[in-house]
Amino acid sequence: MINYKTEEEIKIMNTGGKKLRRIINRLINEVKPGMTTAMIEDRARKLIEKERAYISFNKVYGYDFATCLPVNEQIVHTRPSNRILKEGDLLTIDMGVFYAGFHTDCAETIVVGQKEEGEIKKFLDTGRRALEIAISKAKNGAYLGEVSLAIEQTVTKNGYFVIKRLTGHGIGKNLHEDPLVFGFLNQPLKNTLKLKPGLVIAVEVIYSMGTEEMVYEPGDSWSIVTKDGSLSACFEKTIAILKDKTLVLT
Fold it and tell me: Quick check: helix, strand or coil at residue 120?
């Protein structure tokens, strides 16, 4: 069942989303080679507290952290650790905040300690562009499948692969709500959900350089990696459908 939000609830989520966006921007600016992902986690916790918000991700059963911090072939759900970041690593900062009873969710992938160039720049630009186009399709009266198709077409036309088993999601009082937001068109367009005011979703572009196949990292019940070891990235924003526009919350 989809939990549509009132205008007042969306205003609250917008405030929470701005807090999350500020935190992620700070973290991106502070990341450098030699840091561990545990150090980023510690900093994220301090920034959430400073924003007078709460951690979202530790409300997922069995997960005790504020962030997921995949590196290189790690796709999603990688726990902070003593792994030391090296120059040129691809790092995804994925986190949520819980503010005034509502969650928001956001993710960015960056290059550690280097400018983006060459194939890496193309790869990351593709994900950003896919998210931008997908969000432009998410408006009152459109089909959710238009969002999914935009992600799929943008990623695949550039020679990359959508991780089809991982999806975006509805969000609100719970971190994960209906509907699922696929990164590919999984059924005829007009069979997908028709978007209407009050729908709040986390749109995620989750993709890799070499494969759509994923596996759990050996010895880890959370971290998911590309089956072929190729690089992966994730870009995510929380958005709200209003009557006359779409609001990007994060």
Answer: helix
Taking Cα atoms as reference points, which of 197, 106, 205, 230 lies closest to residue 149?
A: 205
DSSP 8-state secondary structure symbol assigned to residue 95: E
Phi-psi region of 67 (alpha: psi -120 to 50; beta: other; left: phi over 0): beta
Q: How many CA atoms lie within 13 A of 202 on its CB side?
A: 31
219: left (phi over 0), alpha (psi -120 to 50) or beta: left
Give how far Cα 170 sits from Cα of 114, 121, 177, 239, 240, Å.
34, 30, 4, 10, 10
Instruction: Determine the Cα angle at 142 with ends 3 and 5, to 5°.
Output: 20
Interatomic CA distance for residues 155 and 183, integer angstroms: 9
> Where do we find the tokens 């007009």?
190
Q: Is 113 left (phi over 0), alpha (psi -120 to 50) or beta?
A: left
Query: What are the domain boundaries of the chain?
Result: 7-248
Superfamily in which the 7-248 domain is placed by CATH: Creatinase/methionine aminopeptidase superfamily (3.90.230.10)
pLDDT tens, residue by residue, 204-242: 999 999 999 999 999 999 999 999 999 999 999 999 999
Q: What is the pLDDT of residues 13-36, one digit of tens each?
A: 999 999 999 999 999 999 999 999
Q: Give the separation between CA 145 and CA 100, rounded to whole angstroms.
A: 31
